[in-house]
Amino acid sequence: FSPCRFLNFFSALxxxxxxxxxxxxxxxxxxxVENHFGRGVGAYGLLxxxxxxxxxxxxxxxxxxxxxxxxxxxSYVLWTVNSALVVVLALAPWxxxxxxxxxxxxxxxxxxxxxxDTMLMELVPGHLLSRVISVDYFGSLGLMPVGLVLAGAASxxxxxxxxxxxxxxxxxxxxx
Length: 176
Prior knowledge:
The protein is mainly α. 85% of the residues lie in helices and 0% in strands. The chain has 7 helices and no strands. The chain has helices at 3-36, 41-65, 71-91, 95-123, 129-141, 144-154, 160-175. The longest helix has 34 residues, at 3-36. 35% of the residues are buried.
């Protein structure tokens, strides 16, 4: 097992994930809230609030549980769950189900980020940490602008629900 190889692979995988899941989520979710659920900007803000509250819960839960074993596998499981919840959120027939999915998604994201950051701090030698974190952030976020453009362009030919659910399903496959 090479921690550096794992970190490099995970960063590349996460870059694709952000392009196909997070970017479309940011671009298409306001349209889903307005057109699918028939609600306005306040309802979108509430979804993001539930997601943020979930992130806090997930991070606190990580701090309480402090998992020490199989964190790589745990990280993949959390991002798989996150992607599956994006599918549920995109296809939810009711706003309330979307809100519950957003909260659970936030918990998975908060826990997942805490797992990842902890692994970085523990596995990367101190003298390389700033470089590795810089490459991790740049690598992970590098394809995000492409995803934003593609999601906006694709929304002219497919429904936001289909695009977001498809991206979430692709995320499930990538991490599983």
